[in-house]
Amino acid sequence: xxxxxxxxxxxxxxxxxxxxxxxxxxxxxxxxxxxxxxxxxxxxxxxxxxxxxxxxxxxxxxxxxxxxxxxxxxxxxxxxxxxxxxxxxxxxxxxxxxxxxxxxxxxxxxxxxxxxxxxxxxxxxxxxxxxxxxxxxxxxxxxxxxxxxxxxxxxxxxxxxxxxxxxxxxxxxxxxxxxxxxxxxxxxxxxxxxxxxxxxxxxxxxxxxxxxxxxxxxxxxxxxxxxxxxxxxxxxxxxxxxxxxxxxxxxxxxxxxxxxxxxxxxxxxxxxxxxxxxxxxxxxxxxxxxxxxxxxxxxxxxxxxxxxxxxxxxxxxxxx
Length: 320
Hints:
Distance between the termini: 68 Å
Shape: globular
Number of helices: 13
CATH topology: MetI-like fold
Helix content: over 70%
């Protein structure tokens, strides 16, 4: 009996160690997630619901005053509007431009030309975002006025406190950042498509629209989904201070209607309004998670509907 029990324990320990060994490699990632995501979210929640008594700093209560202050803040609403412009307008434009450029590069017959262009796009990953920001300041800033001199215009790209010109400059900056990133991934996804698929399509004399349906969409769908997530994250964390210079750059961004959600949270921390910063963080995270879930379920539903109608089509052909 003792020998049998020892065998069972030894077998259990071996099985346990084999099953848990792969999870040990996830420990560094879990530590990073806990430190940089879970703990900040928890501290933001505490700050957002903690109300301090101005007459007695040691006396606190729980409430939603910070959420009300954020919801009624014109600066937050302006930042929220700017971020939504980047989400729903600028990111799709960047995806369309990136796809067109990737297809254009893929159409070149000489491999050395394709490699040179892709390397040129990829080289931007080694350039600091602040270095690129300085270049854009040189182009758009009212003091340098390089772009206006080239175009012969007089547009206040980064100094428009009345109109929306500053958000246009910020959108161009984001498109510049996203296109170079997207082109590389889409191009390599195109390179992975089997040449035999194109040969079969040419033999069947299939139109370009049909090629998109049966060749490009199945092969590029996963890459496109990943790029949408990454592009949205880039838009979320876009920090407009890289484009604006001045004595008080935070105020410049806010006055010029180019503040984003990330900039608003940083601004609240800068002026030590930690409760409003925490409330804005929770509102932003909830909104972003909602967008991701909406996108996931939408694409999942479209995929299921496509498979359903495809099955019905084959069923009708078989029954005929």
